[in-house]
Design brief:
By secondary structure, the chain is of the alpha+beta class. Helix content is about 55%, strand content about 15%. The protein has two domains: about 210 residues, Homing endonucleases (Endonuclease I-creI, Roll), CATH 3.10.28.10; about 80 residues, no CATH class.
Amino acid sequence: MSFSRDAKLQIIALEAPTDCCGLALLCGLFHASGEIEIKSGQKQAYILTDIQELYPYVNKIFHNLYGDFMELEIEDDYKINKTVYYRISLPKESTEKILKDLGFIDNEGNINLSGTIDEYIIKSDCCKKSFVKGAFLGSATSSIRLSEEANKKTNTGYHVEFTSHSHNFLQGLSEILAGFNIFAKLVQRKNLYVLYLKEASQVSDLLALVGAYNSVLELQNELAVRELRNKVNRQTNCLNANISKTVEASLKQLNAINTIENTIGLDSLPADLQEVALLRLANTEESLDELISLSKIKLTKSGLNHRFRKLIKLANELEE
């Protein structure tokens, strides 16, 4: 199951809003995934969705508001990319009144397809939240994939987006979200407009706003898992880099010692240099710290390193 679909199922598992908030949710849903047709002079309207469980949730809101029931239909024409789509239709006899209430038909009976959100619908914060909830149910998608295991890497970011043919709708939705300190970016992608969030904290705030609380917890857990994995990777990379440095330094020191041995001999070295040369020959892969612990004389790390530099300098001079 996708992350966004799971979040939507969490939303519709909550108690359905009533009164003005119920109307605001229906309005957001119609703006996001509603369609209006005129057949034989009669207006017909429906919601298009791939979530069958949305029907009882929306139908309950509709029944509380209008005392009537919506209809659920499945048609072959609505199978896209092997996904079955459903039509949740308004009752034909009351479609025009409902569309007026939602702000899609003006007082003269003209259909308003501008996508402008009716200010009356979102006059309070609770109604604004319900409108966002409806818009999320209607058109929100996400590329987020959660790690099933702490050591299993996922390369996806924290992208959530709303898509629509209406610039005005997404612009209005963006302004509503900004009122809750959620700042989304609006762009055009071919013949569609896209309102998107890609920061984990902003996505988390959006999920909390629409009531997908389990998804908030899952996202926070994913953030912790990824941060832990990144920390381990950084530590591993640092350790590997240190090992590489140790091996490289050891090889350089051994080459210098071998050069000295093959030219003037180690016996010709001062006692302090001869001792560290023999110490290195006996412990070819040890780090400076480990050599110090193995040495019988008191040396600091910088002191030991200084003696090795003398050996390397002498070897270079002998090679020249």
